């Protein structure tokens, strides 16, 4: 039986907004692109995600549309490209909803389903999160190969980062890298 190759899942997070987390994620995407990897960016900053805007993607679908179609049995695996924005030949994005009211309608369990379902189609999946420990982020952490926690030298940010690391240790999560 042939083993299906699974792409690496890297989640980029922070405990304080405005530290450049999305820029770090997009820099990683560029680095993996230069290595010839096929990359998917998933924007889990569901209430104010900006990946689609930064990449200037012209698309009509988002993670909300994908989850809504899964929930209502309209999703067809061979049509996954309908939900993804294409930046270039190797970088794709599953963007956050344009309307933040749609974010609360997304079932967090679908996050795991989506990541696992797409991990064999991409070499790397980069997940952009919000700075809140919500069920979406926790689900992303649970399926990630690495969690990259971005912080600054701001005292509040450093305190929040210390708390985050402590929470991860208590949960048995040992794949966190702080930068």
Description:
The protein has 179 residues and is α/β, with parallel strands linked by helices. Helices cover 36% and strands 16% of the residues. It contains six helices and seven strands. A seven-stranded mixed sheet has the order 3-4-2-5-1-6-7, with helices on both faces. Strand 6, helix 6 and strand 7 form a beta-alpha-beta unit. The longest helix is centred in the last third of the chain and has 17 residues, at 155-171. It starts with 7 loop residues before the first strand and ends with a strand. The model has no long low-confidence stretch (mean pLDDT 88).
| Range of strand content | 15-25%
How many individual helices? 6
Helix content: 25-40%
Strand order within the widest beta sheet = 3-4-2-5-1-6-7
Helix and strand string, N-terminal first?
A: EHEHHEEHEHEHE
The span between the termini is 40 Å
* pLDDT averaged residue by residue: 88
- Cα Rg: 16 Å
Give a quick account of the main beta sheet: strands, pairing sense, barrel closure. Answer: 7 strands, mixed
Shape: globular
User: Regions with pLDDT < 50 over 5+ consecutive residues?
Assistant: none
Count every beta strand, where a strand is a DSSP E run of 2 or more residues.
7
- Assembly state here? single chain
* Class by SSE composition: alpha/beta
Keywords:
179 residues; alpha/beta; 6 helices; 7 strands
Quick description:
The protein is 36% helix and 16% strand. With 179 residues, it is an alpha/beta fold.
């Amino acid at each position: 039986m042939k083993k299906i190759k699974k792409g690496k899942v890297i989640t980029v997070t922070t405990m304080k907004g405005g530290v450049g987390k999305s820029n770090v994620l997009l820099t990683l995407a560029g680095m993996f692109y230069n290595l010839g990897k096929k990359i998917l960016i998933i924007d889990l900053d569901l209430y104010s995600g900006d990946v689609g805007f930064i990449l200037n993607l012209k698309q009509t679908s988002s993670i909300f549309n994908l989850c809504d179609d899964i929930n209502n049995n309209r999703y067809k695996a061979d049509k996954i490209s309908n939900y993804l924005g294409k930046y270039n030949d190797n970088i794709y994005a599953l963007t956050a909803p344009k309307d933040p009211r749609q974010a609360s309608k997304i079932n967090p369990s679908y996050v795991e389903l989506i990541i696992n379902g797409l991990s064999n189609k991409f070499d790397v999946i980069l997940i952009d999160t919000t700075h809140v420990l919500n069920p979406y982020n926790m689900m992303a952490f649970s399926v990630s190969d690495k969690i990259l926690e971005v912080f600054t030298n701001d005292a509040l940010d450093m305190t929040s980062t210390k708390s985050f690391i402590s929470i991860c240790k208590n949960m048995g999560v040992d794949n966190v890298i702080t930068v």
